[in-house]
Design brief:
The complex is a heterodimer of chains A (231) and B (245).
Chain A lengths: L1 H42 L6 H22 L3 H11 L9 H27 L3 H8 L4 H31 L11 H12 L2 H30 L9
Helix pairs in contact in A: 1-4, 1-7, 1-8, 2-4, 3-4, 4-6, 5-6, 6-8, 7-8
Chain B lengths: L1 E10 L2 E11 L4 E5 L6 H7 L8 E6 L2 E4 L6 H8 L2 E4 L11 H11 L5 H14 L15 H14 L4 E5 L7 H16 L3 E5 L3 H7 L2 E6 L2 E7 H5 L4 H12 L1
Parallel strand pairs in B: 3-8, 3-9, 6-7, 7-8
Antiparallel strand pairs in B: 1-2, 1-4, 4-5, 9-10
Helix pairs in contact in B: 3-4, 3-5, 4-5, 5-6
The chains are: A mainly alpha (231), B alpha/beta (245).
Bound molecules: adenosine-5'-triphosphate and magnesium ion.
Chain lengths: 231, 245
């Protein structure tokens, strides 16, 4: 058993470095940008004339539809539509690109709700305090509201990131040789599925454990301004 | 001088301000009193546009806002740069240190140099005896200390008017006294204060002028002496009610 593990480890590790990690990082980074933008569109009131207000309503409706669509359908189906479905209307994407698009949009949809609720969870009196000192809305968001929301948003966002790392295994279904697919291939050759799948499970677990450790570190850092609670 | 004319505000179907006209003389302390729910906070917040009145006018030196027209962000900022509010619950920024709470607006809004802003902040902190807390976060301070910091924060932007909404109501009597002395000093130093309070003793001590608000209407507008010796039934009744509490 040790022999099988040590002989297959380099290929699995290679697949992790080549696909699982880049796919996770890239998708999460893009997804986070989408999430922040969508959250702000839903969160911020708009000032201006009738036309601007109407336009803003339209944009809001659109992003709400996007969030609804991606939260109400399975990720696997979304990947299939992007990779296998879109070519029939002339949009052919490389597997990696298709995967990044699918995972980013999915992360963006979930993340936007997490971020929006964190923005709402910050005491709204903080806006008054900043406005009375002359801060503009973007300044208030950036200097006062977002830092406080960050502390609230870290645990759920970390969960979403860890979920994403595990979900990259779904990319195997759209022909990407990420870690899980490589383990499948090896298992098909050496007829040791139990050994192989335990090995790959272990590798995912290591990745996710590193991430939770990072999460705890970031949580401590972002909470330095919060009262310690004794339970 | 800050002046309002025929200010109205409606929340839903409730008319909270019913056409308030008043002057807030410079270098004087104007105290707004009245029963709970009479619109005192709404009136005070209107002066800093934290509440947007529906109609009426606000005049401040050469600035003139007509609330039946849209207010530009330039006008809004101009007003907010001249006034600064101190809140009942302090509303310090929990993510910033005490020093940063005080310097953030001077640095980021008024573009004061960092060391100059910090020098100014330390001076304010020394005056209220809290300089040793400069690097602490708000949650490490008591309520009375946080309230003093929030007054420093408002003073740091050098407003022409300081607006205070029940600055002592969340404090115990001893801390209340600290704040009262601080406000008395500010008022004696020639600052212009507009304050909502339930504390009649305090109003008696610091007020130059009293506005008595009831049900969204101004029932009295005049000198402190005239108010406390007023013979109208309603004011007598109100004063007796508060003294009993
Ligand atoms: N943002 C709001 N939305 C709806 N109603 C409001 C809002 N703010 C105030 N009101 C209502 O307006 C009325 C006046 O409120 P306001 O806070 O100005 O009273 P107040 O005189 O400050 O009372 P208190 O002494 O209890 O602080 C109240 O009936 C209140 O419910
Ligand atoms: Mg009030």
């Amino acid at each position: 058993m040790w022999e099988i593990w040590s002989s297959s480890l380099p290929s699995l590790f290679g697949a992790m470095l080549k696909f699982t990690i880049p796919l996770s990082l890239l998708s999460f980074a893009i997804g986070l940008v989408i999430a922040v933008v969508v959250a702000l569109i839903k969160f911020l009131p708009v000032q201006g004339n009738r036309f601007i207000k109407l336009l803003w309503q339209g944009i809001r409706l659109l992003v709400s539809f996007y969030v609804w669509a991606f939260r109400s359908t399975p990720l696997l189906v979304q990947l299939f539509i992007i990779f296998f479905g879109l070519p029939s209307i002339g949009i052919k994407l490389a597997p990696f690109t298709a995967a990044v698009i699918g995972f980013s949009l999915n992360t963006g949809a979930y993340g936007s709700e997490t971020i929006r609720s964190a923005l709402l969870a910050v005491n709204q009196d903080q806006w008054d305090a900043a406005y009375t000192l002359g801060f503009s809305t973007p300044q208030t968001l950036w200097r006062i509201i977002m830092p406080q929301a960050l502390r609230i948003v870290l645990p759920p966002l970390s969960n979403e990131f860890i979920g994403l790392v595990k979900d990259t295994s779904l990319a195997s279904t759209i022909t990407i040789a990420e870690m899980f697919q490589v383990s499948q291939q090896i298992a098909a050759q050496n007829f040791q599925p139990l050994t192989m799948y335990i090995e790959v499970a272990f590798l995912y677990a290591i990745l996710c454990t590193i991430l939770s450790t990072l999460q705890h570190y970031l949580e401590r850092r972002s909470s330095k301004f919060v009262q310690e609670v004794s339970h | 001088m800050l002046q309002i004319s025929k200010l109205t505000k409606q929340f839903g179907s409730q008319q909270v301000l019913k056409g308030i006209s008043a002057r807030f003389p410079e270098k004087q302390t104007t105290v707004i009193v009245g029963p709970s729910g009479s619109g005192k906070t709404t009136l005070l917040r209107s002066l800093d546009l934290l509440v947007r009145p529906d109609s009426g006018e606000l005049m401040f030196d050469d600035l003139k806002l007509d609330f039946s027209q849209p207010i530009s962000s330039k006008q809004r900022n101009k007003l907010r740069n001249k006034t600064s509010m101190v809140f009942q619950n302090w509303n310090l920024f929990p993510n910033l240190t005490i020093l940063q709470n005080i310097t953030s607006a001077p640095i980021h809004v008024h573009k004061v140099a960092v060391d100059q802003a910090e020098h100014q902040a330390h001076k304010l902190l020394q005056e209220v005896g809290l300089d040793e807390y400069a690097t602490a976060y708000p949650h490490e301070l008591s309520g009375g200390q946080q309230q003093r910091i929030s007054i420093c924060r408002a003073l740091a932007v050098q407003p022409q008017y300081i607006l205070l909404d029940e600055p002592t109501s969340a404090l115990d009597p001893e801390r209340e006294n600290q704040i009262l002395r601080m406000l008395e000093r500010l008022s004696n130093e020639g600052n212009s204060l507009i304050m909502v309070t339930h504390n009649m003793q305090f109003a008696k001590n610091v007020a130059d002028k009293i506005l008595f608000l009831e049900d969204g209407e101004l029932q009295f507008d005049g000198d402190k002496e005239a108010f406390f010796s007023a013979k109208t039934d309603r004011i007598q009744q109100f004063l007796q009610g508060v003294t009993l509490n």
